[in-house]
């Protein structure tokens, strides 16, 4: 039981609080240490995220040959035929004439106004245009007894039947009544496609319930699909689709033509340059942040604020203080400095191919002469664009080289960087973990757990100390109370004698 100064008139709460404040100073230091470890962990993870973003960009762009083979394709009749380069390495020119567009097969049912609901397990064989063999895996559609025509249309559209289905409502002018039908349009164009019921039950449902006409088990078409007929550089061709590729160029037919159109391509200098510049900007952003972290000042007098200290400060003061407290937590960090040195070496070292060595500077990309920027890249736009225009294959060789498994000398810059960053990111994860790892899986996490244990032990000890103070003050209060009672008793006795 705690007695709070009723007898003595002293502010026991405040006195114990002041005594405990001195006792808690080591605990404050432990909590400050925990906060510093948490800040350090988060700073490591922020850098790792930026490295991962750069690694993804390199994988998606810089390590792909298509990045350096970008072509700007033009058509003399954009409303008739468009084209794009998909894997063409050379500039290209072609003449094309479109005599006929590819069309889809369509199917249409009879009147299904009096459709009867029921359970049905449907199976179909689908043969694509230009393919003589049916789909080896039957397309299955399960119809429930509660399904309406609209439900059936949705299920057909959501299946692999390969058609777009819709329900049509048609007014019969002679009777003034509406009839309902279902129409299928094949998703794929060209001739030769067909849909067959895989069993008699499916065939019966399609004819009796949905009103389609069948030849045996095959659905009769309303209109057969047709192939596109084109002439490319004087050669007559038939294509099942209005989109097809020839010699690394993908054509899209939009309409027929009365004469030949010209399709031509040239190196997309601006497009390739923009990709390289975006890569350099991302790399510089990473380099600049790491340089800042490993070189910023450490202010050891600015420790994390305690809750009590924050109460006495404004938000702006807290913000400025914590900026100082967070500064320099990664100063001269060996993992980061080693990783950045490795990345700089990846750029500086030439890439060998067929007995020649290419350097980054030959393409108008060099490191900044400003010492503080340490590895920051700069681009000579005119020089780089001229090199792209003249020899995009050399730029590809510089960044891609012999691929991931080539020797270091023959490995392109993109693959070198990925390997260096992979090593660095793993080292950072071993130090600071990631959101999927528990504390016991990385070194800072283990330190955090150790501090937590120390904090728990210290708080248990502080509770015992505080309880001890209260016992002493409570004993004092009890003693004073007894003395007051005795004094009052004696005063009463003396008073009675005097009377």
Topology:
Blueprint: H1 12-23, H2 25-62, H3 65-68, E1 71-75, E2 81-85, E3 93-100, E4 104-108, E5 120-127, E6 139-143, H4 149-157, E7 163-172, E8 177-189, E9 194-197, H5 200-209, E10 214-215, E11 218-219, E12 228-232, E13 235-239, E14 243-246, E15 249-253, E16 261-267, H6 269-295, H7 307-311, H8 315-326, H9 334-348, E17 351-353, E18 356-358, E19 365-367, E20 377-379, H10 381-390, H11 392-400, H12 413-432, H13 443-498
Antiparallel strand pairs: 1-16, 2-15, 3-12, 3-16, 4-8, 5-6, 5-9, 7-8, 10-11, 12-13, 14-15, 17-18, 19-20
Helix pairs in contact: 1-13, 2-6, 2-12, 2-13, 6-10, 9-12, 10-11
Give a structural overview.
- The chain is an alpha+beta fold and 499 residues long.
- The protein has three domains: 23-65 and 271-296 and 331-443, no CATH class; 71-102 and 228-267, no CATH class; 104-219, no CATH class.
- Helix content is 45%, strand content 21%.
- The chain is built from 13 helices and 20 strands.
- The chain has helices at residues 12-23, 25-62, 65-68, 149-157, 200-209, 269-295, 307-311, 315-326, 334-348, 381-390, 392-400, 413-432, 443-498, and strands spanning 71-75, 81-85, 93-100, 104-108, 120-127, 139-143, 163-172, 177-189, 194-197, 214-215, 218-219, 228-232, 235-239, 243-246, 249-253, 261-267, 351-353, 356-358, 365-367, 377-379.
- A five-stranded antiparallel beta sheet has the order 1-16-3-12-13, with no helix packed on it.
- Helix 2 (25-62) packs antiparallel against helix 6 (269-295), helix 2 (25-62) packs antiparallel against helix 13 (443-498) and helix 10 (381-390) packs across helix 11.
- The protein is flat and about 130 Å long.
- The model has no long low-confidence stretch (mean pLDDT 89).
């Amino acid at each position: 039981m705690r007695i709070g100064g009723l007898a003595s008139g002293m502010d026991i709460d405040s006195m114990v609080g002041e005594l405990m404040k001195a006792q808690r100073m080591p605990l404050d230091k432990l909590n400050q240490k925990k906060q510093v470890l948490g800040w350090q962990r988060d700073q490591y993870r922020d850098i790792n995220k930026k490295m991962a973003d750069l690694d993804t960009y390199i994988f998606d762009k810089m390590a792909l040959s298509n990045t350096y083979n970008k072509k700007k394709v033009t058509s003399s009749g954009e409303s008739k035929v468009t084209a794009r380069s998909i894997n063409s390495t050379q500039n290209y020119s072609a003449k094309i004439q479109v005599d006929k567009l590819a069309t889809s097969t369509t199917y249409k049912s009879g009147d299904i106004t009096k459709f009867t609901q029921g359970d049905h397990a449907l199976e179909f064989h689908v043969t694509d245009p230009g393919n003589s063999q049916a789909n080896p895996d039957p397309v299955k559609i399960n119809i429930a007894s509660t399904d309406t025509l609209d439900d059936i249309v949705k299920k057909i559209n959501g299946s692999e039947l390969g058609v777009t289905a819709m329900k049509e409502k048609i007014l019969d002018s002679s009777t003034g009544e509406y009839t309902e039908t279902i129409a299928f349009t094949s998703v794929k164009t060209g001739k030769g496609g067909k849909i067959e019921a895989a069993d008699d039950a499916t065939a019966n449902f399609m004819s009796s319930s949905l009103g389609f006409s069948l030849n045996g088990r095959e659905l009769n078409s309303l209109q057969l699909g047709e192939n596109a007929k084109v002439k490319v550089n004087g050669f007559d061709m038939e294509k099942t689709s209005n989109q097809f590729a020839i010699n690394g160029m993908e054509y899209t037919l939009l309409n027929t033509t009365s004469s030949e159109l010209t399709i031509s391509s040239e190196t997309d200098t601006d497009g390739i340059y923009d990709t390289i510049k975006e890569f350099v900007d991302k790399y510089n952003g990473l380099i600049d942040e790491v340089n800042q972290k490993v070189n910023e000042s450490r202010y050891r007098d600015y420790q994390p604020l305690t809750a009590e200290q924050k109460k006495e400060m404004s938000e702006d003061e807290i913000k400025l203080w914590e900026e100082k407290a967070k500064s320099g937590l990664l100063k001269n960090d060996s993992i980061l400095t080693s990783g950045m040195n490795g990345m700089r070496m990846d750029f500086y070292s030439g890439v060998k191919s067929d007995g020649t060595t290419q350097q980054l500077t030959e393409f108008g990309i060099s490191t900044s002469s400003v010492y503080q920027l340490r590895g920051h890249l700069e681009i000579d736009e005119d020089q780089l664009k001229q090199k792209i225009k003249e020899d995009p294959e050399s730029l590809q060789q510089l960044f891609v080289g012999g691929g991931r498994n080539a020797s270091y000398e023959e490995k392109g810059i993109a693959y070198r960087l990925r390997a260096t960053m992979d090593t660095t990111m793993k080292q950072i994860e071993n130090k600071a973990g990631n959101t999927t790892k528990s504390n016991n899986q990385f070194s800072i996490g283990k330190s955090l757990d150790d501090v937590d244990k120390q904090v728990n032990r210290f708080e248990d000890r502080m509770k015992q100390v505080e309880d001890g103070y209260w016992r002493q003050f409570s004993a004092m209060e009890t003693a004073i109370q007894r003395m007051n009672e005795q004094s009052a008793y004696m005063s009463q006795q003396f008073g009675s004698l005097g009377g």
